[in-house]
Amino acid sequence: KTVEGIAIGIDTDGALLLQDKGGSIIKIISGEIELYTAT
Q1: Distance of CA 24 to CAs 2, 17, Å?
Q2: Residue 26 CB neighbour total at 10 angstroms
Q3: Which residues pair with 10 in a beta bridge?
Q4: How many angstroms separate the CA atoms of 39 and 36, rounded?
């Protein structure tokens, strides 16, 4: 699965945070992807 987004920072646990075109926040750590929908 491909995820497109703009890197917006690194979380406290070292995960990469991306923001996709829809404004959702995507957290990537250890190859796992967690999706946070923007409110």
Answers
A1: 15, 10
A2: 21
A3: 16
A4: 9
The string of pLDDT tens digits covering residues 1-39 is 677 889 999 989 888 899 988 888 888 887 677 766 655
What residue segments make up the domains of the chain, in order of their start?
6-36
Quote the pTM value.
0.61
Strand order in the sheet with 25-29: 6-10, 16-19, 25-29, 32-36
DSSP assignment of the chain equals -----EEEEE-TTS-EEEE-TTS-EEEEETTEEEEE---
- Calpha distance 33→6 (Å, rounded): 15
